[in-house]
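Students often ask why inverse folding is considered easier than folding. One informal answer: many sequences map to the same fold, so there is more than one right answer. In these notes we will look at a single instance of the problem. The structure comes first.
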């Protein structure tokens, strides 16, 4: 009888461990749909905002995101606009490009940066304002969340700070 209790105890323990390990995979779809139904979204401060326009270039494209303004006083960042050059592998070694942020036909900034073939190499960007909307950047890397350049997946992402009263 004791041997049978031991076998049943070990079997129950093994099944409990198996159920514990499988439960997240079996219920993941249920939880994902439940969270999506709540309407929660990732803050644009982290995602860069919604893409509002794509500019086709020779072999690559520039995606212009909607301007991001901090939603609460606790967010200590300046307003910014995110630009994605993608795919990074198709970019020339030196990028110097004028970009129209609002689609009015007038370039708002000129961005200049090098694209090393090593994806882990440090990037630096210069942004020259061509209008009153953006702030200048000189040799900026990843020092700030609202003024930066970084490789993210297959894209080179540049965040350009905006002049505060441009809404």
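Output (designed amino acids):
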């Amino acid at each position: 009888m004791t041997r049978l209790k031991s076998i049943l105890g070990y079997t129950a323990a093994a099944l409990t461990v198996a159920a514990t390990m499988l439960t997240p995979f079996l219920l993941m779809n249920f939880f994902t749909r439940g969270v999506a139904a709540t309407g929660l979204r990732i803050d644009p401060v982290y995602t860069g905002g919604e893409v509002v326009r794509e500019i086709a270039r020779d072999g690559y494209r520039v995606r212009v995101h909607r301007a991001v303004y901090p939603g609460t006083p606790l967010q200590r960042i300046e307003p910014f606009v995110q630009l994605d050059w993608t795919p990074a592998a198709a970019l020339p070694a030196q990028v110097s490009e004028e970009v129209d942020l609002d689609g009015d036909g007038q370039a708002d900034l000129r961005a200049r940066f090098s694209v090393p073939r090593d994806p882990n190499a440090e990037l630096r960007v210069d942004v020259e304002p061509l209008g009153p909307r953006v702030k200048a950047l000189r040799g900026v890397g990843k020092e700030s969340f609202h003024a930066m350049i970084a490789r993210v997946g297959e894209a080179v992402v540049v965040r350009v700070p905006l002049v505060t009263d441009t809404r």
